[in-house]
Write a structure and sequence with these properties.
It holds the Pfam family Epimerase. By secondary structure, this protein is an alpha/beta fold. It contains seven helices and nine strands; from the N terminus they run E-H-E-E-E-H-E-H-E-E-H-H-E-H-E-H. The chain has a single domain, classed as 3-Layer(aba) Sandwich (Rossmann fold), CATH 3.40.50. 39% of the residues lie in helices and 18% in strands. The strands form two sheets. Strands 3-2-1-4-5-6-9 form a seven-stranded parallel sheet, with helices on both faces. Strand 5, helix 3 and strand 6 form a beta-alpha-beta unit.
Length: 223
């Protein structure tokens, strides 16, 4: 399997990348980043790309890849609705169109959020925008597609969040991580990556996956 990963400099994306590096079924990894990542490996090819609303200049690079793990995201806190829409929907739309044109016979997974609004009619802006993004991806026509509606996530393998507040929370709660991991709704950065890889060979009827669903996929298809 050859995979494209966005957002690998962030907490979830880096966790997914580490799992792809370790998994023997993943042969090649194409990273699309705005800034270089601090990981070097024979599987990895990294492209530094500044304008995520236009992938036309690198679209040919996507040919031959079997999956796209779209882990790039931004918090709605502190930014206006227009900026959030651009950084969430517009960027995803550009990536979806470019990867679909390169290979429609592809698995596409999108890191969404718990509480996302598929109706696109609710009162919460971020939930509507993520819902619109999910709907675009799931209805595009890819061979398979999923929305990972992440809620409580525990970082593993030294992965850190770019958000200082989240990192502070993780530091003070680390002693109870083993307890938190027992909760069905809580997942980890490692399990998110493992689930994305597993879905390539094990399609699921449920397309909106929450923490418990992700954990179950990892348990069912452990290899």
């Amino acid at each position: 399997m050859k995979v494209i990963i966005t957002g690998s400099t962030g907490m979830v994306g880096k966790g997914v990348l580490l799992e792809c590096i370790d998994d023997a079924s993943v042969e090649n990894i194409l990273l699309i980043n705005r800034s270089p990542i601090d990981i070097s490996h024979s599987k990895i090819k990294e492209i530094i790309h500044k304008d995520f609303t236009d992938f036309s200049s690198i679209q040919d690079e996507f040919k031959g890849y079997n999956a796209c793990f779209h882990c790039m995201g931004v918090s709605s806190a502190g930014i206006n609705a227009e900026a959030y829409y651009k950084l969430t929907f517009s960027i995803s739309e550009a990536l979806v169109n470019a990867t679909y044109q390169a290979n429609p016979d592809m698995l596409f997974t999108y890191v969404s959020g718990a509480g996302t609004d598929s109706s696109e009619q609710g009162n919460t802006i971020w939930a509507r925008v993520k819902g619109k993004t999910e709907n675009l991806i799931l209805n595009k026509g890819f061979k398979d597609a999923y929305a990972f509606r992440l809620g409580a996530i525990l970082p593993e393998r030294g992965v850190k969040s770019k958000t200082k507040l989240y990192n502070f929370f993780y530091v003070i709660t680390k002693p109870i991580f083993p307890l938190l991991k027992r909760m069905k709704s809580v997942t980890t950065t490692s399990k998110i990556g493992q689930a994305m890889i597993n879905l390539y060979n094990n399609p699921q009827p449920l397309k909106h996956l929450e923490g418990a669903d992700i954990n179950q996929i990892v348990t069912l298809y452990k290899h």
